[in-house]
Each structure stands twice: as C-alpha cells, then as structure tokens.
Amino acid sequence: MSSKLVLGKIAFVTGAGSGIGRAVCQTLAREGACIIATDRNPEAVRETVGLLTRDAGQSHIALTMDVTSANSVNTSLQSAIEHFSRPPSIVVNNAGITKDNFILKTDERSFQDVIDVNLKGTFLVLQATAKAMSEAGITDGSIINVASIVGKWGNIGQANYSASKAGVEALTKTAAKEFGKLGIRCNAVLPGFIATPMTDTVPENVKAMFLSRVAAGRLGRPEEVAEVITFLASDRSSYVNGASVEVTGG
Ligand code: NAP
C-alpha cells in the first residue's frame, strides 16, 4: 500500500473556495489525489487550486458550480469527466450556508435557501456522482457529506440549518444502504465549532457559550476536519459505511 492515502484517485469537492472545503482540497492533494475543486465563487475556487500540491502525474481543475442547480451540477461533472477521462471516485459534499434566526422570526425564503444548498445540493451532487461512478464500474467509491453536530443537538437560532444537517445525516445512511453493494461507501462528518469564514460572524458571547461546552476548550481548525474526511475518502476506511463521525473536540 502506498504511503499516500489517496494516490491517483480523483476527488470532487463542493464549496471548495473557502474554509473546510479548501482545507479538504489541500489535504487530499497532499495525499496524492487529483482535485476537481467546485464552488459558486469562481475567484475563490481558482485561488484554492493555486494552493494545491502538484507532484508528477497530478493535476487539478477549478469549476464554477452551484449545488442547488441540477443543470450546473451535471455540466460541471461532465466537464470534469471529459478532463480526467473518468469520473471521480471521491466526492466531498461540503458546500453549505447559514441564515440564522429564531424560529418565530425566520421567513420562508431563509428556511428554503438553507435547505436548498445544504440538503438538496448534497442530494443532487450525490445522485449525479454515484450514477457516474456506477456507470463507469468504479467499486472503490467514497462519498463524504459534511453535516453538523447541531443536526443532532439542535441549536437556538438555527432551525433551518440544524434541520438541513439532520437531513444530510439521514440521506447519508440511506445512500450507504443503497450503494453498498455497488462498492460506493457514503459517510458523514459532523463538525462542531470550526474557525472558518462561516463562523467569523458569530457574536463573541455566542462563541464563548459554545466553547464552554467543548472539552478541548478551543475551536477546531478546518484541517482537523479535512484529515478525517481524507481518511474516510481513502481505502484505509474500507469497512466504514453509513457512519456519522463527530469532529467536535468532545
Ligand atoms: P464557508 O467558509 O462559508 O465555505 C462554504 C463554501 O461553500 C463557500 O465557498 C461558499 O461560497 C460555498 N457555497 C455556498 N453556497 C453554495 C452553492 N449553492 N453552490 C456551491 N458552493 C456554495 O463555510 P465552512 O465553515 O468551511 O463550511 C463548510 C461546510 O461545513 C458547510 O457545509 C458547513 O455547514 C459545515 N460545517 C461548518 C462548521 C463550522 O463551524 N465552520 C460546523 C459544522 C458544519 P460563498 O462564499 O459564495 O457563500
């Protein structure tokens, strides 16, 4: 077995222009994968690709893609398949948004937007990539969905977000059952509070309250989530399927 965890594999990452998605691209590239970095923000995703390790035989591409649009997902996947002459065997559904407010103040649009990106977006990418993998006869597929610990706990001000992430966990377990026999695994990671642009805007008093409940006594770093995702992407986790792995500092 190579010392690099995902040497020669092709990885499709959503929300790759920032935070955890960018760190996932960097960690998978360090471990030998070719990266298809996708994000709705074209400059950000190009910047991510500029940061990636390139060993001999390793290449990466940046694609502008909106996970809420089946058309955008299918177009990006097709151009990635044309570029690499085969579909990705690793897929990381990481794109996500928050639109926080108390339930009594949440409007229909804010609820729908968060469900559309976090849950429907994960479904669209998972469905399109699993279909491509199965048609290409790939039997070492690994799909990792980024959910959240608040999908288990709930969180004040995050009804839309926590419901979307609970949905991602259920979708993951169902995909694991449906795709298991095809040789495609599907797992979820459940990050706690990770320092990224998404959490930069959280008020200090809310951060302090959350931190008081974290055994590690600090926020997580995007790389700490990316390392777990890379393990789940690799053949080292070949019998892990349908799992929800918490990355919360305890
Ligand atoms: P982030 O820094 O805001 O990165 C998310 C990326 O996804 C951004 O580049 C964003 O682009 C992109 N994105 C948003 N909507 C998209 C769409 N419709 N299509 C394609 N790309 C889209 O957030 P992060 O903290 O790294 O979060 C990554 C994932 O981890 C999310 O699923 C999040 O829910 C999850 N998570 C984060 C934490 C945490 O504490 N940070 C905890 C638990 C789970 P824009 O910049 O244009 O919006």
Concise structural overview:
This protein is an alpha/beta fold and 250 residues long.
Ligand roster: NADP nicotinamide-adenine-dinucleotide phosphate
Q: Considering DSSP H and I runs of 4 or more, what fraction of the residues is helical?
A: 40-55%
| Total of helices | 9
Quaternary state of the chains: single chain
Q: Strand order, biggest sheet?
A: 3-2-1-4-5-6-7
Mean pLDDT: 97
% residues in beta strands: 5-15%
How many structural units, i.e. domains? 1
Largest sheet data: 7 strands, parallel
Question: Which secondary structure elements does this structure contain, and how are they paired or packed?
Answer:
Layout: E1 10-13, H1 19-30, E2 34-39, H2 42-50, E3 61-64, H3 70-84, E4 90-93, H4 108-135, E5 141-146, H5 150-153, H6 159-179, E6 184-191, H7 197-200, H8 204-211, H9 222-233, E7 244-247
Parallel strand pairs: 1-2, 1-4, 2-3, 4-5, 5-6, 6-7
Helix pairs in contact: 1-9, 3-4, 4-6
Report on the architecture of this protein.
- The chain has one domain: Rossmann fold (3-Layer(aba) Sandwich).
- The two termini are 32 Å apart.
- The chain is built from nine helices and seven strands; from the N terminus they run βαβαβαβαβααβαααβ.
- It has 250 residues and is an alpha/beta fold.
- A seven-stranded parallel β-sheet has the order 3-2-1-4-5-6-7, sandwiched between helices.
- Helix 3 runs parallel beside helix 4.
- The protein is globular, with a radius of gyration of 17 Å.
- The protein binds NADP nicotinamide-adenine-dinucleotide phosphate.
- NADP nicotinamide-adenine-dinucleotide phosphate binds next to helix 1, helix 4 and helix 7.
